[in-house]
Design goal:
By secondary structure, the protein is α+β, with helices and mostly antiparallel strands. The chain has helices spanning 6-11, 29-50, 68-87, 94-103, 110-115, 178-181, 184-197, and strands spanning 14-16, 89-92, 122-123, 130-140, 145-149, 169-171, 214-226, 246-255, 263-268, 285-290, 297-301, 305-309, 321-331, 355-357. The protein has one domain (27-357): Jelly Rolls (Sandwich). It is built from seven helices and 14 strands. Bound molecules: fe (ii) ion (FE2). One of its GO terms (molecular function) is dioxygenase activity. InterPro entries: 2OG-Fe_dioxygenase.
């Protein structure tokens, strides 16, 4: 049996959502509660951080601009971005992502490390067939940088087209650590996403601040596990959206997984939320994509397409099958009585602070 992390032991894995509204006088009770949780996390991370005092410098895209490879990569990203704007989704093969990420500054040695990074995942707060961690980052176009944000719990609601047994509850995930955030291939993925989405007009979601020059990116590192007793579902919720503006999904690797597993279907936004793929209307399927190779990456304008994903099936049914992914949710900061009001801080992370330059292809 897997040990439960100290954070989850103290605070539980998921709690019914209370009225998570920001009080006019500052932090409300629940917010102080969660900040306390961040402090508990801090103490546990201090020891680990001592080991990375001599950390290598983070990715710096400004230093890349003197190479021909950089301009080739920017030219290709412009083409991908145009396709993304036209189709509202784009799939980029992993073998094409590698030279792009290297041109943005990713170091060779960080690619195999990134592929194996999900070995450090722990039990998910609500799903028995999943291991997970998450972390929050800010795309800040005032400072033209990406910054690690402090710990906050996570929530998705039925109102955001996410219908599952744990909708409308606050979930506490263990945090992603320096092994992921200091990896320059990961940092280049963040810079790539910023280049792809910033300045693009999307159908706006209610209760998000579209006047802000900042975006909140919640990064999930996920391993879906199928065992002889349990089917791993990358999207148990069926047809859904992620409650954000731009979703990006990047494949790391799988073990013992059949070739027909984990296919992503994009549905018209009018398709019914929460139904299984077999129940969907074929004429409402807009696209199909399948991550097969390291760094295969899919972007979706999340409020304009719904999506569903088929299960992870095992080649050898007597053994475990796994699928490792990185999921980048990006949306504007919340306003008013959004379900995540009060758990959407833009404060930097105090113990795992990280900031590196970003770049935009937009005039905004
Ligand atoms: Fe999703």
């Amino acid at each position: 049996m897997e040990a439960i992390s100290p954070i989850k032991q103290i605070w539980g894995t998921a709690a019914p959502i209370l009225r998570l509204r920001r009080t006019p006088s500052g932090y409300g009770l629940h917010q102080r509660w969660y900040r306390g949780l961040g402090n508990a996390s801090t103490a546990m991370n201090e020891t680990r951080d001592m080991a990375v005092k001599a950390r290598p410098p983070p990715l710096n895209i400004k230093r890349q601009s003197c190479t021909p490879e950089f301009y080739e990569a920017i030219s290709r990203i412009c083409q991908l971005r145009r396709k993304y704007m036209e189709k509202r989704t784009v799939f980029v093969d992993g073998e094409e992502m590698v030279p792009i990420l290297k041109a943005l500054g990713a170091r060779d040695e960080d690619f195999p490390r990134l592929q194996a990074v999900n070995n450090s995942l722990v039990g998910d707060p609500t799903l028995p067939f999943r291991k997970s961690r998450n972390g929050r980052f800010c795309f800040d176009w005032d400072t033209k940088s990406v910054r690690r944000l402090e710990f906050q719990p996570f929530a998705l609601s039925v109102g955001e087209d996410f219908k599952r047994h744990d909708s409308d509850t606050v979930r506490v995930f263990d945090e992603v650590d320096n092994d992921l955030q200091l990896n320059t291939a990961f940092q280049a993925l963040m810079v790539f996403k910023g280049l792809m989405f910033h300045g693009m007009t999307v159908k706006e979601r209610p209760k998000l601040d579209y006047h802000s020059n900042k975006w909140v990116c919640t990064l999930f590192a996920l391993r879906t596990v199928t065992t002889p007793e349990m089917l791993g579902e990358p999207a148990l919720e069926g047809v859904h959206t992620d409650g954000v503006d731009h979703t990006m999904t990047t494949y790391l690797r799988s073990t013992n997984m059949t070739p027909d597993s984990a296919v992503t279907f994009l549905h018209d936004v009018k398709e019914k939320t929460g139904i299984r793929l077999q129940e969907t209307a074929p004429e409402m399927i807009r696209a199909r994509a399948q991550h097969r190779h390291f760094l295969d990456t899919l972007l979706i304008v999340d409020n304009e397409r719904k999506h569903s994903i088929s299960p992870v099936y095992a080649v050898n049914a007597s053994r475990e099958a796994t699928r490792d992914m990185l999921i980048f949710f990006t949306r504007k900061p919340v306003t008013g009585d959004h379900i995540s009001a009060g758990i959407d801080s833009l404060n930097p992370h105090r113990e795992m602070g990280l900031e590196f330059p970003a770049m935009s292809l937009s005039d905004e």
